[in-house]
Design a protein that fits this description.
Radius of gyration: 27 Å
InterPro entries: MerR-type_HTH_dom (IPR000551), MerR_fam (IPR047057)
Coiled coil: 81-115
Shape: elongated
CATH class of the largest domain: Mainly Alpha
Keywords: Coiled coil
Distance between the termini: 78 Å
Largest sheet: none
Helix content: over 70%
Organism: Clostridium frigoriphilum
Oligomer: single chain
Protein name: MerR family transcriptional regulator
Number of domains: 2
Strand content: under 5%
Low-confidence stretches: none
CATH architecture of the largest domain: Orthogonal Bundle
Amino acid sequence: MVIKEAAKITGISIDNLRYYERIGLIPKVRRNESGIRDYDEMSIHWIGFAMRFKKAGVSLKDIREYIHLAIQGESTKEVRREILIETKTRLDKKMQDMQETLDVINYKIDTYEEKCEPVTNELIDVWKANRKKTEKALDMKLT
């Protein structure tokens, strides 16, 4: 399939597909006799793999390294496995941090009326009172 079709299937712009290939984020795409990229199922698979990792926050450098190793074949299997384990560990930590934040947000939503809103209003009142004191002090200095 031509690049336009690959872009439509993957949801990635034509320019980005070219860029990702150029920087090695996805393996080189086979070209037809006319030199036009000819994306196949495996190309779409690699694009999906790279984009999933990118979306998860894996650096482009790490994605490139993994794909470069994968292209080398069986001899890099253990190194690739280690990269996957390290990536999983980072993602587990990130997900735990996000879950803790989500728990706080859910708590605040659930208790907003009885706890958060009064505290917020109190903070606003204190801020307004301090602002008035500051304005009075500035007025006294200017006169």
